[in-house]
Amino acid sequence: MINFCCSQLSSWFYNAGSKGFSVVPKLYEDDTYTIFLQARNQDIEVREGKLSVGQQAIIYCPFCGSKLSKVIKRNKEGIEFYTKKNIDLLI
What we know:
Layout: H1 7-14, E1 20-27, E2 33-40, E3 53-58, H2 68-74, H3 76-85
Antiparallel strand pairs: 1-2, 2-3
């Protein structure tokens, strides 16, 4: 179980690929992570209509203001899980 800074951020990790807002982590070659805030107009499974996705790297939790590097450091295994699970969602 991941020890997120707040329940809202936890929900956004879980909802990656769904319509609305979510967060998706990315692992770089130097073993550092970046968390991306993502917004979608439809679920990833929908194969009709026009898909719109916006994405922005974030440093702080948009809900409680916690520094995400600390959240990542406390939860390496969980962040790695979401990184692998959601790698195809990044743009």
